[in-house]
Amino acid sequence: MKNHPVFKKLLAGNQRYVEGNSKHPHSSPSSRKKCAQGQSPPAAVLACADSRVAPEILFDQGLGDLFVARVAGNITNPMILGSLEYAVEHLGTRLIVVLGHKRCGAVSAAVSGKSLPGHLPSLTRPIAAAVRKTQKQPGDAVDNAARENVRRMVKKIRACKPILDKMVDKGTIEIVGAFYDLDTGKVEPIE
User: Fold this and answer.
1) Of 73, 78, 89, 124, whose CB count within 10 A is highest?
2) Cα–Cα distance between 68 and 72 in angstroms, integer?
3) For residue 144, what are the contacts with CB-CB under 8 A and spacing of at least 6?
4) How far is CA 189 from CA 40, 101, 128, 153, 178, in A?
């Protein structure tokens, strides 16, 4: 997983970000003009909607570099899966990264087990299995569940029929998990 060339590029961009040496690639007027003609992002990122987790910034990528789908808790649903299928089927994307993060609010709500109003349960229900699996682990309950949630979403995307599972089986796409530390800015792969 860590050896995928596009993932290596993303981690190198993250290292620049961590060190305060971001290049902000592909953000010039000429890049914008080129992107206006079409897109072929090498990576898609399923990230949390948290305002502190902006994949283009923390991976130091620019216009056209990432196809980003965001939803609180970085969970999958039919619209997210359809978006990822579109990226690989029509745009040529060959890497999908599921990006969780430290102190995730959606995971925290799931860990609390409290009754939630409105549509909020639609965000916490998919995270509940990760909470159950990690509830007796030592360490921070929210971060443990957030990491497990990433693993579960990676597994779910890999098994998504009829497009993604076939591409995974053929080796034409790779789906990986990662975890962002809000304090350090560092992204680390999740096995």
Assistant:
1) 73
2) 13
3) 134, 137
4) 24, 12, 22, 14, 4
Question: 82 — phi, psi (to 5°)?
Answer: -60, -40
Instruction: Output DSSP code: residue 137.
Output: S
User: Residue 2 in contact with residue 91, Cβ under 8 Å?
Assistant: no
Q: Which domains does the chain have, with CATH numbers?
A: 5-190 (3.40.1050.10)
Q: Which of 130, 59, 158 is nearest to 99 (CA)?
A: 59
Question: Does the predicted model carry a pTM greater than 0.90?
Answer: yes
pLDDT per residue over 64-117, tens digit each?
Answer: 999 999 999 999 999 999 999 999 999 999 999 999 999 999 999 999 999 999
The tokens for 32 are 């914008």
> Whole-angstrom Cα distance, residue 73 to residue 7?
21
CA separation for the pair 187, 176 (Å, rounded): 12
Please measure the distance between the N-terminal and C-terminal CA atoms of the chain and give it in whole angstroms: 8
Q: Between β-strands 66-70 and 174-180, what pairing exists: parallel, antiparallel or unpaired?
A: unpaired
